[in-house]
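Form 12-C: Joint structure prediction
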Amino acid sequence: MRLRLEVNGERREVDGVWEGESLLYVLRERLGLPGSKNACEQGECGSCSVYMDGILVCSCLVLAGQAEGREVVTVEGIAGGDELHPVQEAFVEAGAVQCGFCTPGFVVATHDLLRREPEPTDAEIREALAGNLCRCTGYEKILDAVRLAAQRTG
Amino acid sequence: MEFLQPLDRKEALEAKAAHPEAVPIFGGTDVMVELNFARTRPRAMLDLTRIPEIREWGEEDGRLLRVGAGVTYAQIIAELGNKLPGLAMASRTVGSPQIRNRGTVGGNLGTASPAGDGLPPLYASDAEVEIDSTEGVRRVPVSEFILGPKRSVLKENELISAFYLPEAEGPQQYSKIGPRNAMVIAVCSFGLALHPEREKVGTCIGSAGPTPIRAGDAEDFIEGVLEEGGLWESRVAIDEAALRRFGEMVAAAARPIDDVRGTGEYRRHSVGVLAKRTLMWAWDEYREATDAA
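Section 2 - Result
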């Protein structure tokens, strides 16, 4: 089937989408946007987190056709051009990136948190990132990065 | 595979009647897992996210609320925390922000898993499920709606359109056991609602039986204790022996199995502990309410 949606501010049209595939598959395999990662495919790890119509979702749990006409923002669209978003800068500076696989999901989820709550408490940070798993960097550095980003943007 | 995307209720019911094999999808938090892992290859998918009325909730006659099947956990937490505190508490324990932004109680009903966090609060306050089809609308008590693990009375041509739940008339609680505080399918859970106006106590055991289970004997027992002691009026503390007995009776009502999340023995024990604690918390809140008044 044909799918029309807006991705990172651009209108995109994709042909040959299988009715049973996920938005994550469309983004990665059909639109060449590999920033959103494919790990658990069951909403457990958060590495495929994107915005759909401004709401943070796991793109692996969105059926492609459900994104028809919707506005999707992926980690590639968080900052403009080659610039880094302050959240991304904070992750680099705090050393919150090791293998990097979980990072895009954490960046999008952190972006969502700071949009809603510019000065989050540690408990709020933990709650907001509860759906994102990291298996190597360690959560302490990630928490440091979120606090740093909050300081700079808040 | 066919992809059906009705734009209103009428179109949805006609689509379901014409394609009874179509799998309804809203938040996708259960259905997409099945699709991603190729556990199911339905001939058609029926997307319900474009139907505006399914996302709405509102007040019916008196204090009865009608909550559309597409109202998300995030919405329940943000908009219904005061009116449906037990369901809001349960909603806060569901998955992660990403899951709560998409998942719905309607989906919990559709999946009909005994571990669905949205279900015990529905049982504890005698919710009804609204079922819609081209043949008409019917309403079924939630305890009759779910028949067994992942089985319900929903027919092939029917869709879940909403559930009805009375606005809380007293304190409500929901408590859940799992290995961490987020992203957990309940090892077991317990929902409790005090109904002071009717002098009733509603309960429901989650994830320790083939369906969510009302602990009817435990309800009768504690209602007797509250009535005989005149506690609804005096708002005196419930004595320890009665609390313990209530927990034991709830534990006795569980019908747990051993599985990857826990043993039956552990579930039976812990659901009794949850029952005692939630009753204590709810009763304390009831007592404090009078101090304030």
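Section 3 - Comments
The beta strands of chain A are 3-7, 10-14, 49-52, 55-58, 71-73. Chain A touches chain B through 29 residues (CB under 8 Å).
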